[in-house]
Amino acid sequence: MSTGDPVKTHINDKRIHVVHNHEDAQMSIQEIFDAQSYPQMIGVTGQISADFINQYLSGFVQVELALGNLPTHQHLRNLENVTKGALADALLNTANKEAIKLFQGLSSQLQLTALAGVLKLEIAPTQLLHSRFYLLANLVTGNTRVILGSINLTKESFDAAANRFEEVLIFDNDPLYGNLLHHFKEDIRPVVQPYFTNELLTVAEKQLKANRAANGNNDSVIILSNEETDQIVQREMTNLIVDDVQRQLDKQLLDPQATLAMRNVTANRTHDAEMEERAIKQRDTVLMLEKESVSPRAAHPKIKDREQISKRVQHALQSSVSPQDLAVEKKYTTFLYDRPLERNIAHNQTGLYTPNDAGTYPIPFGKLATVSQIKEGLQQIEAVIRGYQQFVVDFTADYGKRYYEAIMYAFTAPFLWEIRQKASLNPEDGNDIPNFLILGSSAGSGKSTLLRIINQLTWNTSKSMIDFGTIYPVDAPQRKAKTMQALQSYMMQGSTYPVLVDEIEPYFFQQPQYSRRLIVDTTNELVNSPKPVAPLIGTTNYNSGFTMRRETARRTYYLQLDKVIDSAKKGEAAKYIYGVREKLDNTLFKDFVVRMANYLEDDSTPWRMFDKNTGQLDFLAMTRRIFRYYYQLADMPIPDYFSDSLCDDFGENARNKWAKLYLTQKKDFLFRKDKNSLLFDITKLTTFNGFSSDSVEEYRNALPVELCVDGINGKNGKFVEIKAPAFYNWIGIENPQLEPVADADNDQTNDEDDKAAEKEEKAAETPKPKKKRGFWARLFG
Q1: DSSP letter at 261?
Q2: Nearest one of 244, 287, 238 to 126, comparing CA atoms
Q3: What's the predicted TM-score (pTM) here?
Q4: Higher pLDDT, 407 or 272
Q5: Which of 212, 276, 419, 749 has the greatest number of beta carbons closer than 10 A?
Q6: Where are the compositionally biased (Basic and acidic residues) regions (predicted)?
Q7: Are 548 and 440 in contact (CB under 8 A)?
Q8: Residue 140: count of CB within 10 angstroms of its CB
Q9: Can you give the pLDDT at residue 74?
Q10: Nearby residues of 20 by Cβ (< 8 Å), 6 or more positions away
Q11: 318-349: per-residue pLDDT in tens?
Q12: In this structure, are residues 229 and 100 in contact, taking their beta carbons and an 8 Å threshold?
């Protein structure tokens, strides 16, 4: 099953306690799971991840692993362990497509080994399985290894930085191997069933054959559509109840009272009251499915026939999603999957895949362009920005950089999650690579048109945009919260093509329960657990009321497009941009992803490049390099609106806001000499004084915490206390509290005058008082 030699990952922290043959040892994960010395592996684990399999288990000739259950926080009785524990978990994991997700996370070669039955994963749907052991063997040499402990087959289990203790006990050629092997074969194997079910493998193999027949090559990557996986889940859930539970009953491996417990499974549900609403609904669904799967009144209930169960399963799945929510889901239509494991630079394979037109199998995305095509692509971008240059009032080259930045961000978007990994020395660094681009625009600035242009330049269509205000109808219950959940769902589809959202309403940024949950929580999840998640590019109306909280602003790339199209030229502008958009395509983007994939595969690529102006990590540095090379290839001059650095529009907007406030309200900034600080009563920013109703929070959010005395406490409450020197420097105004400095040149001149006067006094032999010298002489003499 080998897919290449992985880099050794050493374990050097005592919290990962490794004991090898009764002695403390330092071993890498590869040395513990030594596939070269022990090609066969059997065992039981609690959790397993595709990343771990791809990196550490691909070298084994044969693998059979049973997946156990995680410990629960509550004590369950005998039959509750079956109905509320094992079976409910199995049904829930099936409904959440956990096995399908794991299968699709495997490399294409490992997917083939799963199809061939060489990589076997299993579950026990009617037994709680808390065992943890791994048995390695070499049938040729007869050598064996037993691995015990608390570790699971995930990278997190071996992460010493997680600040938890784990035990790894290793015994080579120990009699314990025979004991545990017998236990696995005789006790565990009879109660397990394939985790990668026949339903899943059949559909995967069908797609594989169709892909090869259609493309005439051996490309073996498998990516299943939502429709296919939905159908797989329905059949799997039916089989779990009809076949697997009944089989355990027939073999007398399950208590005969289990069906009675299934019927009563919904009793005593109060302990779930504190669970998240979504989790409760999911669990209630599978538990109700259990109850309704057996006869309602018999003393010893029997499982209903397949047709009845199948209808129950179908109804349960359909009722869990309302027609309105289903309609919302279908508004997300563009899928681009980033699969770095499938990247083949020698053949210009980017690792990006998109579904074919019928949605039946994935096809590679990306193709090198000719020099003439590259030149044409640059000219398309030039025509776009030239349109804004002609029709936007007070357009400047510096302002035009924002349009180019938005386009470059969109080009880079599918790879941002990879760039975040490569540029981060620690998890906190990931916050510097924003997964959100917000275009703060004035009404009539052409922001919606720009979003459509971005869609055309990357996807060759303008129909992928989602209108924020129409995701849910205005009369929908909990509309705001559900809209945020929909956006989060769009981003979590596994695709890395950016979610394009037009006209995001101001409340999203002003109310932290929405912006924080989507922007901050999503970014934190990406930082701690890197995975393909679609970036979001959105527009919002810019006005004096726009604001973002500090933690949200840090994780967002904000570009301000506050200049409007000349109203006298709107007709001409519309005609011009229509002609430009008629000629746009995504040829340059297809070439770009090939070149960016090459950079991602090159270990010498410098991802940690910092902006000389802002000091921020320039996550678009390699994108700028590629575009500069494009201009060189096309023999075209680099335009003056091409940006070599990030735009700090949110910071600049905040500075201007406070600078104007200070210049117009100086008397309200009271100097506190003992702390060299300024006190400002922020509650004066009321509608009575001409400000908007949200001005207090706008100005509070715009004030950097590092300027405040006592940190965050200095910007909260009625009085904001600001460090005077830092504040004046920030807004670019001379500090009026500083004492004037002496003029050295004038001091020297006055000294010479003083000496000449002294000579005159001596010559006249008339005693005269000496003049005061220098600056103080001019001031007081």
Answers
A1: H
A2: 244
A3: 0.75
A4: 407
A5: 419
A6: 756-768
A7: no
A8: 7
A9: 57
A10: 27, 170, 172
A11: 776 777 777 788 888 899 999 999 999 888 89
A12: yes
